Amino acid sequence: MKKEQILVAVIALVAGLLLGILFFGGKKDAVPVGGGVPMGGGAPADYQQRIAEVEKIVAREPGNVQAWIQLGNDYFDTDQTQKSINAYGKALELDPNNTNVLTDQGVMYRKMGWFDKAIANFEKAQKLDPKHLQSLYNLGVVYAQDLKQPAKAAEVWERYLKMDSTSPTAQQIKAMMEQFRSPSGK
């Protein structure tokens, strides 16, 4: 492949990613910190089987925090928002200072439109670990996209960029902040 073809492919890939973020509310912020790929729609058979198995585990071992987290992640990945919130809630009862679970539950609160609860989760994660980038990113997303408060989003994202200015997420943040500044973005 020629250098020009590779460059065009990379630019197309980045443009597609940014368009996906703009049109679908930023799927990046909808990926649980623990991993996984949002599936949309119903649960595929492998998820259904895994969910059934993990539900049995938490029924037998209600103190198994990792099982609750896995269940929350699987519900997250299969678009079962309320069930995900509840599973993460059980995990947080057992491990209230888990910044990743706080963030994932916050993303689910955001999906339900419960922005105050989402913000509370992201802020708690930040108090526990001021370097937790995923919670900082998502806090900015709520301010920018949901509450239409670009100044607050920019303030949050400036903190993010002080810790990480080169990752793909940092580039995405810079692009969103640039939209705030452009006349058509206001």
Automatic annotation (TrEMBL):
Keywords: Membrane, Repeat, Thylakoid, TPR repeat, Transmembrane, Transmembrane helix. Signal peptide: none annotated. TPR repeats lie at residues 65-98, 99-132. The chain crosses the membrane at residues 6-24. InterPro entries: TPR-like_helical_dom_sf (IPR011990), TPR_rpt (IPR019734), Ycf3/AcsC/BcsC/TPR_MFPF (IPR051685). The keyword Transmembrane applies. This is Tetratricopeptide repeat protein.
